[in-house]
Amino acid sequence: MTPEHARRAIEESIGQVAPNADTESLAPDADLRDTLELDSLDFLRVVEELSERTGRRIEEDDYPQLATMASAIKFLSG
Amino acid sequence: MPSLGADMDEGTLLEWLVKPGDQVHKGDIIAVVDTAKAAIEVESFHTGTIERLEVEPGQTVPVGTVLAMITEPEEVAATPAEPPAVAPPAVARHRQKPRPKKAPAARRQLPPRAAAGEPRPAAPGSPLVRHLAQELGVDLGTVPGTGPAGTITRADVEHAAASAQPEAARPTVTRPVPAQAETMPPQAPAPAARLRVSPRARRVAAQLKVEVSGITGTGPGGAVREADVRRAAAGAETAAAGPPQAAKRAPTATASERTPAMRLAIGRLMARSKHEIPHYYLSNTVDMTAAMAWLHQRNRELAISERLVPAALLLKAAALAARQVPELNGYWDNDQFNPAAAVHVGVPVSLRGGGLLTPAIRDAAGLPPGELMTRLRDLVIRARAGRLRRAELTDATITVTNLGDQGVEAVFGVIFPPQVALVGIGKVIEKPVAVNGMVGARPTVITTLSADHRASDGYTGARFLTAMSDLLQRPEEL
Q1: CA–CA separation, A44 vs A64, rounded Å?
Q2: How far is CA B350 from CA A28, A46, B27, B357, B387, in A?
Q3: Which of A55, B225, B279, B333 is the most exposed place for a label (fewest CB within 10 A)?
Q4: In the CATH scheme, what is the code of domain B10-174?
């Protein structure tokens, strides 16, 4: 998966859970959960959406890699 | 208009989901009502045929107003006690002649649950109540009774006295049975600080995509009218390209519009709690090693959609502990504690636009963790989408608030009256813990209890937190 695809998948997944979230102006290293005010239930939904879009099972142990946009893109396109 | 929470004085009918002639069953969702806090789905309290709708979409009416008339088929006339002679002639009773072919069809007014269908006032109240009424200058004939069989209670009289000033002269004819769902201590009438926008203006604002909260109203009391909206729209040169709204549903307030009203509602309820309830507070640090290990193992094996978050497991433990310590599960009402039969856990859900709603998960102690998690997810989504049902906002017997996701270690909450306890859960954090003389890093969580000292003592509260901790050491049994 290319970084561009990964980014789009992340943005779409977040958009499903927090429709008003502004992912475009998000700093690459900003903490996604804090910045977008996602609680653990929201974050789980994001993971679920992301898993569907990328066809890849994301384990709980992978969560730290989804902390920021930059790290998440790296994780999914790696 | 049913009461959708202890902090509600009035509601706006947004939408009817039924029309006259429709058959409804008890529990069917028949209308959507907007309160200061959210749009709520309201169910029918009776089975029967919708005779007519009394309130139009967009209309705001006080709690207790009749919304619709339902004819109950085959109903044995449910009017046992005729009102005694003291009943004032002005009272409208809305009992119509039964239709010719459906023999004894009794009418029931929609919301009042308690003494539905019974004429009010069935009883003039005890001597004490009569005395109080005289003292406060309250005409008992105009007071809705919320006691057994429509009896007028002390609280009813006080409530009537408190809300009397602007409304004393209101003819009772328009509101046959303004019974309140809960017996509540008197509350001052709500300050009218809510942003006032006419329904039409709101609709036009939605079409023109104008934020009404930024508009200066020129209507009575500073209310925003259609002309104000159009002027604002023209000034902003906003394109009026919005599709026309579906005609029947009155527009919902947006989150930002709702915030001031919601803050007021939350403030009133919490002030009442701090004023009335002598809180005591306990806290406990719980070792989460076993629970977190079990959770991770389980989540590795199951589909992502079936994963549990620690919050769900902690919620289950709290619900089970409440079952074990029933002194904390129920309501303080009329100077006594009434334990609840089941544990319905209220869960505060923060809304994206600010504020919170506290819907309940029914019988949370009886649900397996997976099912509890599903309910929790569903509840959060619907709370934020404004699609909660009435019962979900009035049923909670105890509240469990979790601020762990917000990063706090411990939360000491304010009890939601008339409940008598609130459980606070913080963040699961790795901390140095000594076990058998050895210090190691272990996941821990701080659980707290705010409890009503009228209903229980610290000894009882301690049993609750200990029970919760014990339960979390055996997660597979939760």
Answers
A1: 13
A2: 26, 18, 27, 7, 15
A3: A55
A4: 2.40.50.100
Complex-level ipTM: 0.88
* CATH number 3.30.559.10 is the correct assignment for the domain at B278-477: yes
Give per-residue burial for B215-229: e unless 16+ CB within 10 Å, then b.
bebeeeeeebbbebb
For residue A60, the chain B residues in CB contact (below 8 A) are: 296, 299-300, 307
- CA A67 to chain B, closest CA, distance in angstroms equals 14
Retrieve residue B420's tokens.
């008598």
Tokens describing residue B372: 């509890």
Chunked mean pLDDT (size 10), chain B, 478 residues: 80 89 89 82 88 90 89 59 40 41 44 39 52 66 63 68 49 37 38 55 69 67 68 53 46 70 89 96 97 96 93 97 97 96 95 86 95 94 87 92 92 96 97 93 98 97 98 96
How is residue A64 written in tokens?
A: 């730290």
CB-closest option in B300, B305, B309 to A41: B309
CATH number of A3-77: 1.10.1200.10
What pTM was estimated for this model as a whole?
Answer: 0.65
Q: How far away is chain A from the Cα of B370, in angstroms, using its nearest Cα?
A: 13
Where, residue-wise, is CATH 3.30.559.10 in chain B? 278-477
| Beta carbons of A57 and A47 less than 8 angstroms apart | no
| Closest CB to A59 among B300, B310, B405 | B300
Contact A41/B305, CB-based, under 8 Å? Answer: no
